[in-house]
Amino acid sequence: MKTQDMNRDWIATAATLSSALPYLQRYDDAIVVIKLGGHAMGSDEAMESFARDVVLMRQVGVNPVIVHGGGPMINAMLDKLGAKSEFVNGKRVTDQLTVEVVEMVLSGLVNKRIVQAVNRQGGKAVGLSGKDANLMVCDQTDPALGFVGTPAEMNPTILRDLFAHDIIPVIAPIGAGRNGETFNVNGDTAAGAIAAGLKADRLLLLTDVSGVKNAAGEVLTELTAAQIKEMTEEGVIAGGMIPKTETALDAIEGGVRAVVILDGRAPNAVLLELFTEHGAGSLIRKG
């Protein structure tokens, strides 16, 4: 009986691989930018599973780019240092000390954790920030917020060079100022700007929610930019989902073919989205 169960499992696995063929062909040599949020990183086990999925993507011909956040880790370090945060209109003011902590945590602790996870799964990952090779040149968002930047100029040549050598870029959302400043950039904003700079096929925003929901609380699997705008005006899209959908619209306007908002805590969420018929989360297209 045990042998029969094992045979059924292998048959199901083979059927799954076979059904994935059209999608493997569809994404051959495609660029997929993945925004990995601090909450979506979860446990060490979740990180290992995510890294394995990304390595598999590279193995079958996809060019993945990981852009990560790390808000919880930054907050924990600021608390350890006894640094008090000031807020303007609900947004943290990033002073000189804070931006140094942000760069230390994101470019160091968080970035290298992801790089090591990918490398342990047999991939070749290299950690970068937006300051490397002037990948992401920023203007100051608002003087009242201090060293918070908005991407103004993207130079993604370094990423294409890494693709050519089968290397997976892992990028911390730290931007370079025009006068030597270091800017903290919102992770979603950075991922959208990098995806637009690369004219990526997909931008996957891994969050802690299952996708964009309608007024009845049901996840919508496909949406257009016009529908997103209408739902925002009606108040159906609200709270923390607004900046996610704004990032999606900006990325699509910048040349990204489609953006998917999905639950990064779900096992194999990236593979389900790319290589299965039903996908995962909410896919947003221009129209």
Number of helices: 11
Q: Could you give the count of β-strands? A: 14
β-strand amount: 15-25%
Per CATH, the superfamily is: Acetylglutamate kinase-like
Task: Give me the CATH architecture, please.
Answer: 3-Layer(aba) Sandwich
Radius of gyration: 19 Å
Envelope shape = globular
- Main sheet characteristics: 8 strands, mixed
Q: Which CATH first-tier class would you pick?
A: Alpha Beta
| Poorly predicted sequence stretches spanning 5 or more consecutive residues | none
Tell me, rounded to a whole number, the average pLDDT.
90
What is the total number of structural domains? 1
Cα end-to-end separation: 52 Å
Class inferred from helices and paired strands: alpha/beta
Q: What's the helical proportion of residues?
A: 40-55%
List the strand order in the largest sheet.
5-8-2-1-11-13-14-12
Series of H and E elements: HHEHHEHEEHEEEHEEEHEEHHEHE
Q: Would you give the CATH topology?
A: Carbamate kinase
Could you walk me through the main structural features you see in this protein, from its secondary elements to its overall organization?
It is built from eleven helices and 14 strands. It is an alpha/beta fold. It has a single domain, classed as Acetylglutamate kinase-like (Carbamate kinase). It has an eight-stranded mixed sheet, sandwiched between helices. It has a four-stranded mixed sheet with strand order 7-6-9-10. A two-stranded antiparallel sheet has the order 3-4. Strand 3 and strand 4 form a beta hairpin. Helix 4 packs across helix 6 (96-120) and helix 5 (71-81) packs across helix 6 (96-120). The mean pLDDT is 90.
